[in-house]
Specification:
By secondary structure, the chain is an alpha/beta fold. It has eight helices and 14 strands. Strand 8 and strand 9 form a beta hairpin. The protein binds zinc ion (2 copies).
């Protein structure tokens, strides 16, 4: 299984997962035109998307999900409550994403080939209800994608712990947010229980989720105004070292560039 973050941040999120013949896109927060550019950078044929999974209904995650499903015929997996969201209106096919349960995804082009990609969704606190994090499993390898969470939830370790690749939100530095340019109500929202993880909160989540199998950590959804890559990197590396996981590779997912395709 290979995972590649195509875009990450408040201007749009999308992550491509290729598992055997099965291609899954987690969130489609870019315009179709921009997405096409990212697909090209990832050497991926956009029409080969089999499945789309939506973490929540905010536009930076859901924007073109219905349009991409219509264009490619991909099944759109989403929580029932999001099915009337305008972003998903044109979807070719919708499948209910059940919180706390697993969906087995196979390629629509080669349904008999290889083992399925197992998609598990779990609810996390954020001000778009419901918002979920994903665990993806294929042939014994596990990846977790967790962004847009307002506060750490210690019990997540039971289901999302010890992935091989972990994509985790490191949204803001609490001091930079406090003294930064956002209006007071937006500051309150970002820092609140329905907002986003600060670097310190993300480090606490990392402590809950990191295990001996972790080999790559991707820092995601960094705020362009309220964070600096070196701050997020610093605290992430410090936390990993404390856990005896100093060998883990740490990357930052960018807003305007695709990451390399990570072998999970
Ligand atoms: Zn977001
Ligand atoms: Zn959000």
């Amino acid at each position: 299984m290979r995972l590649q973050v195509l875009s990450s941040g408040s201007r749009g999120n999308a992550t491509l997962v290729r598992a055997g013949e099965t291609n899954l896109l987690v969130d489609v927060g870019l315009s179709l035109r921009e997405l096409e550019t990212r697909f090209e950078a990832a050497s991926f044929e956009g029409r080969n998307v089999d499945h789309i999974a939506l973490s929540h209904g905010h536009l930076d995650h859901a924007r073109s999900s219905g349009a991409l499903s219509k264009r490619t015929g991909a099944s759109l997996h989403l929580c029932e409550r999001l099915m009337r969201n305008r972003s998903v209106e044109r979807a070719a096919r919708m499948e209910t994403l059940r919180i706390g349960s697993t969906s087995s995804l196979v390629s629509s082009r080669a349904p008999e080939s290889g083992s399925p990609l197992e998609l598990f969704a779990i609810k996390i606190p954020h001000d778009a209800d419901p918002t979920v994090a994903f665990r993806l499993e294929h042939e014994g390898r596990r990846a977790v994608i967790l962004t847009d969470m307002g506060e750490p939830v210690p019990t997540l370790g039971a289901t999302l712990g010890n992935a091989h690749v972990l994509v985790l939100e490191f949204n803001h530095c609490a001091d930079m947010l406090r003294s930064g340019p956002y209006p007071p109500n937006l500051k309150r929202r970002v820092a609140g229980r329905g907002g986003h993880l600060s670097n310190v909160q993300a480090a606490a989540v990392l402590e809950h989720l990191a295990g001996p199998d972790l080999h790559t950590l991707v820092l995601a959804h960094l705020s362009e105004k309220n964070n600096r890559p070196e701050l997020a990197l610093g605290i992430a590396r410090e936390t990993l070292a404390k856990l005896g996981l100093g060998h883990v590779r740490v990357l930052i997912a960018a807003q305007d560039e695709v990451t390399e395709a990570l072998e999970v």
